Amino acid sequence: MLDPIRHEVALTGVHPARAFAAYVDLGAWWPAEYTPDAAGFVGGRIEPWAGGRVVFETDSLGEVEWGRVLEADDGTTADAATARLVHTSTLAQPPDVPSTVTLEFDAADAGTVLRFAHGGWRDGDADLRAKFGDWPVILARYAAWARSR
Questions:
Q1: At how many degrees (to 10) do helices 16-24 and 135-148 cross?
Q2: pTM of this prediction?
């Protein structure tokens, strides 16, 4: 197995539950250029429950499912200091070779630390894994959205 792609993002002033809610509001912050139809991008969402869909909507393609939620804990239970989301991803990958995106939203003194991992890469997936070098750009856009909410 190849190592996951990992990143950490500090979300100053953002509670884990709010960070989770901002992330699943995918259409509000996801960059259109990282979709199958940038010119026709309308929005997207993550259905925040196990079995929920990860979808984009475009004018030309309609809804495009690119993942399924495996785990979801929105961090809204009493005194929750964490939230967690795990979903599959077939974005820029063959549908029969999904990877896995894991997001852990952990409370920190100043807000939340997002621990991001994009894994599930098999030994023969090095070319697919290499396509995902822009996660810092995407996560910076998410962080700006989460802080502005």
A1: 120
A2: 0.95
